[in-house]
Amino acid sequence: MKISVIGTGYVGLVTGTCLAETGNEVICVDIDVNKIENMRKGVVPIYEPHLDVLFERNINAKRLKFTTSLKEGLDHGDIIFLALPTPEDEDGSADLRYVLGVADEIGQLITDYKVIVDKSTVPVGTAEKVHEVISKNAKVDFDVVSNPEFLREGFAVDDFLKPERIVIGSSSDRATELMGKLYKPFVRSGNPIIIMDEKSAELTKYAANSFLAAKITFMNEVANYCEKVGADVDKVRIGMGTDSRIGKRFLFPGIGYGGSCFPKDVKALHKSGKDEDYDFKILEAVLKVNKKQKLALLPKINSYFESNIKGKTFALWGLAFKPETDDIREAPALDMINELLANGAKVKAFDPEAMDNVARKMGDKIEFANSMYDVLEGADALVICTEWSIFRTPNFNTIRELLKNSVIFDGRNLYDLHDIEKEGFSYYSIGRKDIK
Ligand SMILES: NC(=O)C1=CN([C@@H]2O[C@H](COP(=O)(O)OP(=O)(O)OC[C@H]3O[C@@H](n4cnc5c(N)ncnc54)[C@H](O)[C@@H]3O)[C@@H](O)[C@H]2O)C=CC1
Ligand SMILES: O=C(O)[C@H]1O[C@H](OP(=O)(O)OP(=O)(O)OC[C@H]2O[C@@H](n3ccc(=O)[nH]c3=O)[C@H](O)[C@@H]2O)[C@H](O)[C@@H](O)[C@@H]1O
Asked: What positions does UniProt annotate as the active site of this protein (predicted)?
């Protein structure tokens, strides 16, 4: 089939590449001229495991092409995916300017039947709005379908190729049939294509993300309570998670959820509720708790240094909002850095993939190091913000030699309490006993 994808970010590029991998002819469109030029030269613009192999293979097979021309994209595709940003607006709602802006151009440019697919995360009623905007100018027939994306960064290729489900919101048989044909290769394992109306599909996405954010937040509250009563959240987590009604996943406490989606999507659903005079009380609590949780290590740091961190140097492991990505949007590490700097401390950081992005955002406010050990030299303490695998089994002797004090503040509970005690560290984590 002939497919066009508008917007080549984490979702658009993975969608385009994976659809090319199943034999479709794909054109990806972006307004970022540099990005398109680089992709034409074979440069993958983001760090996403396994994407490079598929990217190269499909470019070589001439199934994956890139352009800055929306007209070229629209002329090519029978199905047009919109994978455009829907960032947080000032009032917390999803900013639809990119989606509706492109919809407006689509209305002016299409010359034959197209299925326009909302892959971006968009509030209930957006498919209807997109339809209205395109209708203003379109002289040909078209359908708008909602097809929310559930991939996770770091596992995006795997999630896209082997989805647990595909949700299609459509009220057109013609469009539904085309979408079914496109996705057939991805559901051979028996996972379903779930067809529903557009509004329900749009809400499914927000409800799923908000539920997961609430699940993490609930565990963060349990962790905070564990600290008060002397329980161990790791044991509680395992005890709870073995109940299949609860499940083992997304129960890991830490310094809050971040990323390009949970924070903005929870806010957007909360705001959509308000607009309909519905008070989403759970979401309000999730937002409040997560904001505070991002700084959960700070009281521990202050207590260790007797509220005097001015002039101290903190070595940070992990900047990305989670491992296996270079994405730093709403990363808890950034909140931690800002707070440490505001209190007069210095920060040196190491991350396997995200340092360039942080350098672009923070300039020379912090220092960067070339390795997880270089960053420790002369620092007063180690603070762990992201659970990259390489941080899980470090050489504790080297850490002890390089740090001024043998102290670790761990926002991701990487180490076993007995092991770290034997290694002779003071160790502060989330929802577990402090090792002093
Ligand atoms: N990042 C993720 O893991 C997931 C994101 N989503 C949703 O997918 C949507 C896209 O997210 P990301 O891929 O993360 O965004 P992104 O910010 O990584 O990429 C968006 C791309 O769109 C391009 N763009 C902006 N305006 C354009 C225009 N007028 N024409 C063509 N290209 C244009 C930008 O240059 C950029 O390359 C959002 O609604 C997000 O909530 C959904 C599931 C997962
Ligand atoms: O809409 C989206 O963009 C995507 O948002 C999330 O994916 P992603 O943000 O890539 O990452 P997650 O693995 O879900 O992690 C999100 C945040 O929650 C935190 N988290 C996750 C799991 C956990 O147990 N504890 C926890 O604190 C992570 O550290 C991270 O900061 C969802 O998992 C995807 O299904 C969805 O498509």
From this structure: 261 (nucleophile)
Q: Please state the atom number of ligand 2 nearest to the C-alpha of residue 261.
A: 3
3-state DSSP assignment of residue 381: strand
Tens digits of residue pLDDT in 207-230? 999 999 999 999 999 999 999 999
Say if residue 151 carries a ligand binding annotation. yes
- Eight-class DSSP state of 391: G
Q: Determine the average pLDDT of the residues in 62-89.
A: 98
Fill in the DSSP letter of residue 375.
G
Q: For this structure, is 261 an active site residue?
A: yes
| Tens of pLDDT, residues 108-121 | 999 999 999 999 99
Protein residue closest via CA to atom 23 of ligand 2:
250
Residue 153 pLDDT > 90: yes
> What is the pLDDT at residue 370?
96
Residue tagged 């307004």 (tokens): 31
Query: Minimum-distance ligand to the CA of 209?
Result: 2
| Residue carrying structure tokens 């800055």 | 68
Query: What domains can you pick out in the chain, each with its CATH number?
Result: 2-196 (3.40.50.720), 205-293 (1.10.1040.10), 298-428 (3.40.50.720)
Alpha helices in 363-428 (DSSP H): 396-402, 417-422
Q: How many angstroms separate the alpha carbon of residue 261 from the centre of ligand 1?
A: 11
Which protein residues touch ligand 1 with a CB less than 6 Å away? 6-12, 29-32, 35, 83-86, 98, 101-102, 120-121, 149, 151, 153, 260-261
